[in-house]
Write a structure and sequence with these properties.
404 residues; alpha/beta; FAD/NAD(P)-binding domain; 35% helix; globular; binds flavin-adenine dinucleotide
Length: 404
């Protein structure tokens, strides 16, 4: 069976791996001249297996006035256009307590499966992408958010995941440099299951392995899919902007936040909103001198991750359609927050990136067949694409190969 995949982010390349392993031939078409240049190249590098909470949660209703008035620094809605309003109304439907719980369980199942698959794959292919498992600490200044996550931590025991609940002193002892400038800490939650690794590096290494080990694999760069050629309910081929045509038995869209641009010409659309986020990577000779593991600062909603020779600070949710632009004011805001924690880091040498998180209202990705007999999708992984990529890739490969 020949499968044509469009989109060479982490989701597309991992999907290719599982399809190849199960015997399919794969051609991967990627718009850019490299893999993982979009969201997969700008993410926070966290394999956040136990913190998988969807955006749509009962608390969101309380936050609506602040969000509408633009008073929340973390979430900024730049346009209240039809695309955003349609997505937001679906998000509210996913924000009831019962729906939130259901989405969280679905994400947890995917993340836990991904965890073991990543370790297996990294070992099998000898991938080197800075993988470490130092755990993850959530630090809370507000009691309310601390207790909400603590309740979830109790639920995780059902899955044999035991997180450590820390008091203020324990947080300060565990990460003294980070906590030094926090006046009062309501509590912390430490999970030893969570890991870190560079998603861009991983995707590139996996690609090299696929090229070396599978003769039935081909990647075509600078191949931007512009048209899907169909006959009734069957996809026959795709055309790229350079005038080439690619035929296959099955077609898989892994174009992340750009998925609807491909679907719209064939009268399909999915509620996947491109939520822009920022990541600022600052060089640091010994990152662990600053932080022992990845830390989420729940008050500022920023994530700090110690990579091999740098610290990555990521966060922010900007709703402005497909705008990927980098705003100096926003970068300065992130640096200001981070400088409060670590005044001596070389922020003038920082690398700044933005990326669009392909986010569904439930935060659960679409991993399924579309309304055409041979068209499939693996997209919409939102804030967790790197974390969920392996289980998603495995599942879509099974779906594609087992359906007639
Ligand atoms: C700031 C930030 C921090 C994040 N932190 C984390 C984190 O710590 N942990 C985590 O698990 N997740 C995180 N995420 C989310 C994660 O990065 C994404 O969910 C994931 O990268 C999505 O992968 P993807 O392959 O679907 O999309 P992308 O990486 O965006 O890839 C889509 C690909 O499709 C290609 N494409 C688009 N249109 C076409 C076309 N017409 N033809 C051919 N190719 C096309 C694009 O060029 C691109 O390469 C973060 C995201 C951001 C932005």
């Amino acid at each position: 069976m020949k499968v044509i995949i469009f989109g060479g982010g982490v989701i597309g390349v991992i999907s290719a791996y599982y399809l190849l392993k199960k015997g399919a031939s794969v051609t991967l078409l990627e718009s850019s001249s490299d893999v993982a240049t979009k969201a997969s190249g700008s993410n926070a590098a966290q394999l956040s297996y136990t913190y998988i909470n969807p955006i749509g949660n009962p608390d969101i209703f309380r936050l609506i006035p602040k969000l509408i008035l633009g008073k929340n620094e973390n979430f900024k809605i730049k346009r209240f256009d039809p695309m955003f309003l349609a997505w937001a109304s679906k998000l509210l439907m996913q924000s009831t307590k019962s729906q939130f719980e259901r989405n969280r369980q679905t994400l947890l199942a995917l993340s836990l499966r991904s965890q073991s698959l990543l370790v297996e794959m990294a070992k099998e292919m000898n991938l080197n992408f800075g993988y470490k498992k130092p755990g993850k600490l959530h630090i809370f200044e507000k009691r309310r958010s601390f207790h909400q996550l603590k309740d979830f931590s109790d639920q995780l025991k059902e899955y044999s995941i035991y997180q450590k609940i820390m008091n203020e002193k324990e947080c300060r002892d565990f990460s003294p440099r980070f906590c030094k400038t926090i006046q009062s800490i309501a509590g912390g939650i430490f999970s030893d299951v969570d890991a870190i690794g560079e998603c861009h590096q991983f995707t590139k290494q996996l690609l090299i392995n696929l090229e070396n080990n599978f003769s039935n694999f081909r990647i075509v760069f600078d191949a931007h899919v512009k048209k899907i050629v169909r006959e009734k309910r069957v996809i026959e081929a795709v055309e790229t902007t350079d005038g080439k045509t690619y035929q296959g038995d099955k077609f898989l869209i892994t174009a992340g936040a750009y998925t609807n641009k491909i679907l719209r010409p064939i009268n399909l659309s999915l509620p996947i909103y491109p939520i822009k986020g920022y990541s600022v990577t600052v060089p640091a000779e010994k990152p662990n001198d600053y932080i022992p593991c990845s830390i989420t600062d729940h008050s500022a909603k920023m994530v700090y991750v110690p990579l091999e020779k740098s610290i990555r600070i990521s966060g922010l949710f900007r709703f402005n359609k497909f705008d990927e632009g980098l705003t100096i004011k926003t970068v300065e805001y992130i640096k200001k927050l981070a400088r409060q924690r670590f005044p001596d880091l070389a922020f003038n040498k920082a690398t700044v990136k933005t990326g669009l998180r392909p986010t569904t209202p439930s935060c659960v990705p679409y991993i399924q067949r579309m309304k055409y007999e041979n068209l499939y999708i693996n997209a919409g992984h939102g804030m967790l694409g790197w974390t969920l990529a392996h289980a998603s890739g495995e599942r879509i490969a099974e779906t594609i190969l087992h359906q007639p």
